[in-house]
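Working notes for the structural subgroup meeting. M.R. asked for a predicted model of this chain before we commit to crystallization trials. I am recording the input and output together here so anyone reviewing the notebook later can reproduce the run.

Input as submitted:
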Amino acid sequence: MVKGYSDPAMEEKFQDRYFHTTDSNPEFLKDVEKLSRSIPHMCFQCGTCTGSCPSAPRSSYRIRKFVRRAVLGLEKEALTDPDLWLCTTCYSCTDRCPRDIAPTDVIMAMRNLAFKWDIVPRNFLKTIQLIYKTGHGVPNNDVNRAARLKLGLEAEPETTHKYPEYLPGIRKIMDHYHMKEIADRILSEGEH
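Returned structure, recorded in token form:
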């Protein structure tokens, strides 16, 4: 019995060291940790990640909220929140985390899980299609080529624009995960 408490109901609550509700999935944290290869369960909500985030002052994005959702098993709430897609993957939060958690990788893991549920913003799906077609999410164009030449750079960056022979390899990876197929399907379903 916990000292100072004689109520059996309170004693039972103190024995339960896990958060359980009908909305939580205890496996969600395990899935996120496995995919991210990080330790979000070690987060003590100091706010350094959100304070470091360049997206936070300009949006409603709060990375620590997503880390907390992972810990609490709030899978549906995390994966259906449109803010999940506001992370720029700059890794400022990861660089500054005092617990050596990789919040950026936690977000990327959640995005991968959301993709399995077909929860992906249309612009991300269109980016998948562009990467499949050109090897780039933002393909090079004549304006960018002219700017690169003016800066003394080669017109084509060190990418598939310069080395198109690598594009089949990119497509092979994407085909393995059915990324373009899934993007095409979801985008076509939205057109009806």
